[in-house]
């Protein structure tokens, strides 16, 4: 067990034992404690109500938590709900140097741009780049075969960041491969999220360091002091090899992403392999986080070299990589999705494992469907987390009443891909779920693909997924039991916190 988890379990055990003894010896103590927490819950609710940074649904979720379970709610909010992620002066300066260097690199600009491409460039600050080749990887087997094939060909550097790495056979294969490449002289930089990969052992990380790799953890939770930032996570999945090949998408590292799990018959996911100039934007995404994690003056200097940002033309695909998180004033990833939805002329296809949109996104989708544009949404038929799964149901009535077609995927499998296709001409694929956490709390990355065979492949995959899904109708909603309706309502209110 991770050291931080052990500390937390010991702390929780001591608190429970202490409270139990006090309740036995002093029965009136229970009433005093409850009244104290009720008062704290009221004060925190007022504070949350007047905060400008949180969206309304998150505020409602926190206030309901404080009201319904004041003792648990107060502890949760004090530990994980208060502080937002802030960069130090050093981090900001190093990141600014990197961005200035990347923006100054010469790229082959597109001769003709659509209005949407120009809008997305202005909104995100990232150019739409041509000269790429995209490969859509439809499942874990195909994804990891491609990843390990490219890792084995690395000559200069490997940059890898994952939200979750589960310490199993697949993770061990990754460790051995990276150690082998490091011993061959390849510069390997390895990073994980501090909460998503909290169970990754010190032994695993130390073996990488011993092989000469640089290892970093995003917002590590090493003590109770760090719990105040536990809510602000980096959900990205990024690999960059020699600056020429990159991977991003929905798959983390673990056996379950290969479908090796007793809980699901199949794990349906999508990933993207990028070759060509667009890899530079994926490289920027990784290094932007790396400079934040390192927090050292001058740490950007070594990366301002063509070695890390080659721009060789390899194909005809056009795209851009956008990333964002709570350190940004604007919600870039969400806003680009708004642009894409608003651009639809015929249809929109969305697949997401966690569908908990904020009010603006929900109303945009409803208005789009009411305008006569076909909107299809696939969500899991079986969830990996009950609160998120039943939280999806909270939005079914609002979606279906606007004419949106909602489908539940095979109820023995799990749908985890994060994909949107607009008019079978433009697509997004990355780490971004269609939920409030991805829009407002997590650090996310998404690739926007403009036309090309990769978009058609994603559209074909979506059609195949529809064939394995069941459409939810208004009659189905009426047939739900009272308990199912209650679960959906309750989970929908609290889902924005997860």
From TrEMBL:
PROSITE patterns: PLD (PS50035). Pfam families: PLDc_2, PLDc_N. Keywords: Cell membrane, Lipid biosynthesis, Lipid metabolism, Membrane, Phospholipid biosynthesis, Phospholipid metabolism, Repeat, Transferase, Transmembrane, Transmembrane helix. Residues 230-257, 411-438 form the PLD phosphodiesterase domain. One of its GO terms (cellular component) is plasma membrane. GO terms for molecular function: cardiolipin synthase activity. It is a multi-pass membrane protein. Its EC number is 2.7.8.-. This is Cardiolipin synthase. The chain crosses the membrane at residues 7-26, 32-50, 62-80. GO terms for biological process: cardiolipin biosynthetic process. The lineage of its organism: Bacteria, Bacillati, Bacillota, Bacilli, Lactobacillales. PANTHER family: CARDIOLIPIN SYNTHASE, PHOSPHOLIPASE D. It is an enzyme of class 2 (transferase). It is found in: Cell membrane. InterPro entries: Cardiolipin_synthase (IPR022924), CLS_N (IPR027379), PLD-like_dom (IPR025202), PLipase_D/transphosphatidylase (IPR001736).
């Amino acid at each position: 067990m991770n050291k931080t988890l052990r500390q937390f379990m010991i702390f929780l055990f001591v608190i429970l034992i202490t409270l139990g003894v006090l309740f036995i010896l002093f029965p009136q103590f229970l009433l005093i404690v409850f009244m104290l927490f009720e008062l704290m819950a009221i004060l925190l609710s007022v504070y949350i109500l007047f905060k400008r940074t949180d969206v309304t649904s998150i505020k409602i979720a926190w206030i309901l938590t404080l009201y319904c379970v004041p003792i648990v709610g107060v502890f949760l909010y004090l530990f994980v709900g208060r502080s937002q992620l802030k960069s130090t002066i050093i981090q900001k300066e190093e990141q600014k140097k990197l961005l200035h260097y990347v923006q100054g690199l010469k790229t082959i600009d597109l001769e003709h741009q659509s209005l949407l491409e120009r809008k997305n460039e202005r909104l995100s600050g990232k150019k739409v780049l041509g000269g790429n080749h995209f490969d859509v990887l439809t499942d874990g087997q195909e994804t990891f075969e491609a990843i390990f094939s490219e890792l084995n060909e690395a000559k200069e550097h490997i940059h890898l960041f994952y939200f979750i790495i589960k310490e199993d056979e697949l993770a061990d294969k990754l460790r051995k491969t990276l150690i082998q490449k490091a011993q061959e002289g390849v510069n390997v930089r390895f990073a994980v999220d501090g909460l998503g990969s909290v169970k990754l052992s010190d032994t695993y990380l130390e073996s990488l360091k011993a092989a000469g790799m640089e290892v970093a953890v995003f917002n590590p939770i090493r003590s109770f002091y760090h719990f105040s930032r536990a809510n602000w996570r980096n959900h990205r999945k990024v690999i960059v090899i020699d600056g020429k090949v990159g991977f991003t998408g929905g798959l983390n590292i673990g056996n379950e992403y290969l479908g090796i799990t007793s809980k699901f018959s199949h794990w349906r996911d999508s990933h993207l392999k990028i070759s060509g100039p667009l890899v530079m934007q994926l490289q920027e995404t990784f290094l932007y986080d790396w400079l934040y994690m390192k927090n050292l003056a001058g740490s950007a200097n070594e990366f301002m070299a063509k070695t890390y940002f080659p721009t060789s033309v390899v194909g005809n695909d056009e795209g851009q990589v956008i990333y964002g998180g709570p350190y940004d004033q604007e919600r870039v990833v969400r806003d680009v999705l708004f642009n894409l939805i608003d651009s639809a002329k015929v249809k929109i296809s969305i697949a997401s494992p966690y569908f908990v949109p904020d009010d603006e996104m929900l109303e945009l989708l409803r208005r789009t469907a009411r305008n006569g544009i076909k909107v299809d949404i696939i969500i899991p038929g079986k969830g990996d987390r009950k609160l998120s799964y039943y939280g999806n149901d909270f939005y079914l009535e609002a979606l279906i009443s606007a004419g949106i077609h909602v489908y539940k995927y095979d109820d023995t499998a799990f749908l985890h891909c994060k994909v949107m296709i607009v008019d079978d001409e433009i697509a997004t694929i990355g780490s971004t779920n269609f939920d409030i956490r991805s829009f407002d709390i997590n650090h996310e990355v998404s690739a926007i693909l403009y036309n090309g065979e990769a978009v058609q492949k994603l559209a074909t995959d979506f059609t195949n997924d529809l064939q394995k899904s069941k459409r939810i109708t208004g009659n189905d909603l009426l047939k739900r039991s009272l308990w199912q309706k209650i679960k959906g309502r309750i989970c929908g209110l609290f889902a924005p916190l997860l």
